[in-house]
Amino acid sequence: MCFSAGASFTGGIVISSIGVAALKKVHTPSQIVFAGIPLFFGVQQISEGFLWLALTNPEYAAVQKISTYIFLLTSVQL
Predict the structure, then answer these.
(1) Quick one: angle between helices 37-56 and 61-75, nearest 10?
(2) Which one, of 39, 41, 65, lies nearest residue 51 by Cα?
(3) What is the pLDDT of residues 13-67, one digit of tens each?
(4) Which of 39, 47, 40, 4 is nearest to 20 (CA)?
């Protein structure tokens, strides 16, 4: 999203909520992967929010490292 930590957290919560709702409506196992896509992107947005906070506050160095790895793993296009 790249606007601010608040925007990333808000977007991540909304997208994750949609993902959870979609997973609750799954009827066959083959639908789980597709229903989980919004949850995957929600996690990416939340990790971006933590990255925004960590980059502006040096005392969050441990959070920066973890959130960077999560963000990069969810950003990789296979």
Answers:
(1) 150
(2) 65
(3) 999 999 999 999 999 999 999 999 999 999 999 999 999 999 888 888 889 989 9
(4) 39
Q: Give long-range contacts, CB 8 A cutoff, 24+ apart: 18-21.
A: 18/42
Are 19 and 39 in contact by the 8 Å Cβ rule? The answer is yes
Question: What is the DSSP annotation of 10-46?
Answer: HHHHHHHHHHHHHHHT--SGGGHHHHTHHHHHHHHHH
Q: Report the distance separating Cα 8 and Cα 1, nearest Å.
A: 6
Tallying the residues shown for the chain, one arrives at: 78
pLDDT in tens, 2-13: 788 899 999 999
| C-beta separation of 8 from 46 below 8 A | yes
